[in-house]
Amino acid sequence: MNDGLADPAGRFWAGSMAYDGTPGAGSLYRTDPDGTVVRVLDGLTIANGPAFTADGTTMYLADTAVGTILRCRIDPLSGDLLGSPETHVGVPAPRRQPPVRHHSPVRGEEPDRDLRRGARLPGTGRGKRRCGGREADGDARARTNR
Questions:
Q1: Sign, CA torsion 41/43/3/144
Q2: Cα(89)–Cα(84) distance, rounded to whole angstroms?
Q3: What would you measure as the largest C-alpha separation in the chain, in angstroms?
Q4: CB within 8 A of 87, min separation 6: which ones?
Q5: How many folded domains does the chain comprise?
Q6: Which of helix, strand or coil describes residue 45?
Q7: pLDDT digits over 21-60, tens only?
Q8: What DSSP designation does 110 have?
Q9: Quick one: where's region Disordered (predicted)?
């Protein structure tokens, strides 16, 4: 198992991944309040960072190895997925793993689409970062396209 989080209804969601990082070998699981465990989604590689909207109708889930953040519609009463996940954000392959020599800011996106916080993490620390076609450095605030 990898990263996990409880949704607003108290269900615990966690992703799995293969020890060797085999592409598509991971899954997303949900543990209901009665202890029932349900495999909800297959085909993930490294499931990370689940986050829910306050009303519990949408979950965002990163598949780190693939460089995507998925948006999953959820029935807030049952916890079932409504339809297939959609790609909310995709990161081009060459930008996913910068060399660890300097530091680069990483901005966290809240489900309401505002960029609210940042952290300095290992990375290149060079060049401009862009979000939605606008500079995202300093105190700039930007929104995703959706």
A1: negative
A2: 15
A3: 50
A4: 68, 69, 70, 71
A5: 2
A6: coil
A7: 899 999 999 999 999 999 999 999 989 889 999 999 999 9
A8: P
A9: 81-146
